[in-house]
Specification:
The protein is built from 5 helices and 3 strands, in the order ααβααββα. The chain has 106 residues and is of the alpha+beta class. Helix 3 crosses helix 4.
Length: 106
């Protein structure tokens, strides 16, 4: 089935909103900063860095993975997480496009 242009825009808008929503929590920003400073980390390493419960960090990581901003890899007994630098940089481009499209008629 071929999507119409309005369906494509709605999907794009949902994807953009999901990425912005994933960035809309201070703990997730701190998690991204910590992951960016490392090549990859386990959930335990993130928990040790932040003053948050393991279950809380796991939930935040899940949101970041679902938004496509963090990559997940199973590594034996531990899960490894890493920033998807291209996806995160893409958020900047999305915001720039949004601002330009909203301000171009001024």
């Amino acid at each position: 089935m071929i999507e119409s242009p309005s369906e494509n825009r709605a999907c794009d808008s949902r994807a953009i909103a999901a990425r912005f929503a994933a960035l809309a929590h201070p703990a997730r920003i701190e998690i991204l900063k910590h992951l960016a400073a490392s090549r990859c980390c386990s959930c335990r390493e993130v928990v040790d860095h932040l003053d948050l419960a393991q279950s809380t960090v796991s939930q935040h990581l899940k949101i970041l993975v679902e938004a496509g901003l963090v990559r997940f890899e199973a590594d034996r007994q531990r899960s490894r997480y890493a920033v998807d630098h291209a996806a995160l940089a893409g958020v900047s481009g999305l915001l720039d496009q949004l601002v330009n499209s909203c301000c171009s008629s001024r």
